[in-house]
């Protein structure tokens, strides 16, 4: 009789489902620790001259890790999350090294909170990129690009204004070719020179100025520095400084790094 009662109790007990074993890759934003909010955004990003593999994203606390995918190349990395401000109209700001590993970020990015693996954490703390990730498939990239905000198209001026502008436009001056080495966009330069043209307290102002001058921003706060370059030689930096002075930035200075 006792054994019969025990059998009934066993059969009536609730069955507990077992969780599948964790995968080999970093756990994505849908698999973060209990109680943490999901973070998965798509948008435009700026690039700042921060050393190491870092990303700053509005709403993502510093000290953690994020998976960043470049929507134009499909490359994916895991990056440290740093503290800082992000310009209006942008969802993230990447360090120059992170942007270089991604192959650029002009086509937009996807940023997701992840739990990084131990080997990735060790690499990131050493200032290097983590383990290579598979590229995002074309179908996923196409879907993510549809989430990007539309780029505003400037209004077409009246025909009379277009004619007036065309008749008053002067031919652009042709600058002589430089004999100095040219650093390709997106290349990671470990040493060289930059030209600092401004230091402001607003991230938005710094980003606007950097885009107008074709420069980059060194992340604050409290001060956001706008710099041109990098340049591989001092003469190249001096020419850039002189050009900045002619454009109204007489206080531009040359900065050597590292």
Structure explained in plain terms:
With 258 residues, the chain is α+β, with helices and mostly antiparallel strands. The protein has two domains: 29-145, RlpA-like domain (Barwin-like endoglucanases); 189-258, Sporulation related repeat (Alpha-Beta Plaits). Helices cover 26% and strands 23% of the residues. The chain is built from seven helices and eleven strands. A seven-stranded mixed β-sheet has the order 1-7-4-5-3-6-2, with helices on both faces. The chain has a four-stranded antiparallel β-sheet with strand order 9-10-8-11. A hairpin with a 5-residue loop joins strand 4 (65-70) and strand 5 (76-81). It is globular, with a radius of gyration of 25 Å.
Name the descriptors.
Alpha-Beta Plaits; 258 residues; Barwin-like endoglucanases; 4-stranded antiparallel beta sheet; 7-stranded mixed beta sheet; alpha+beta
Question: What are the SSEs and their pairings?
Answer:
Elements: H1 2-12, E1 40-43, E2 45-48, E3 54-57, E4 65-70, E5 76-81, E6 92-95, H2 96-102, E7 109-114, H3 118-125, H4 138-145, H5 159-168, E8 192-200, H6 203-213, E9 216-218, E10 224-231, H7 234-246, E11 253-257
Parallel strand pairs: 2-6, 3-5
Antiparallel strand pairs: 1-7, 3-6, 4-5, 4-7, 8-10, 8-11, 9-10
Q: How would you summarize what this structure contains?
A:
By secondary structure, the protein is an alpha+beta fold. 26% of the residues lie in helices and 23% in strands. It contains 7 helices and 11 strands.
């Amino acid at each position: 009789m006792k054994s019969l009662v025990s059998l009934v109790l066993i059969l009536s007990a609730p069955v507990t489902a077992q969780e599948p074993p964790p995968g080999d890759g970093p756990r994505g934003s849908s698999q973060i620790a209990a109680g943490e909010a999901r973070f998965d955004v798509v948008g435009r990003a700026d690039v700042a001259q921060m050393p190491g593999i870092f990303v700053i994203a509005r709403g993502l606390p510093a000290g953690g890790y994020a998976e960043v995918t470049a929507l134009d190349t499909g490359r994916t990395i895991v990056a440290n999350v740093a503290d800082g401000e992000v310009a209006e109209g942008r969802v993230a700001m990447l360090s120059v090294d992170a942007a270089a590993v991604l192959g650029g970020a002009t086509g937009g990015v996807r940023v997701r909170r992840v739990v990084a693996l131990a080997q990735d954490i060790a690499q990131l703390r050493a200032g290097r990129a983590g383990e290579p990730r598979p590229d995002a498939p074309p179908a996923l990239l196409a879907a993510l690009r549809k989430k990007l905000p539309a780029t505003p198209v400037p209004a077409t001026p009246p025909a009379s204004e277009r004619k007036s502008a065309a008749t008053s436009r002067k031919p652009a001056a042709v600058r002589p070719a430089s004999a100095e080495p040219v650093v390709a966009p997106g290349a990671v330069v470990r040493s060289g020179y930059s030209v600092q043209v401004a230091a402001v307290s607003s991230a938005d102002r710094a980003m606007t100025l950097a885009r107008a001058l074709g420069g980059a921003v060194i992340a604050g706060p409290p001060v956001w520095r706008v710099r041109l370059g990098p340049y591989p030689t001092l003469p190249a930096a001096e020419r850039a400084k002189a050009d900045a002075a002619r454009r109204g930035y007489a206080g531009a200075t040359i900065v050597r790094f590292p």
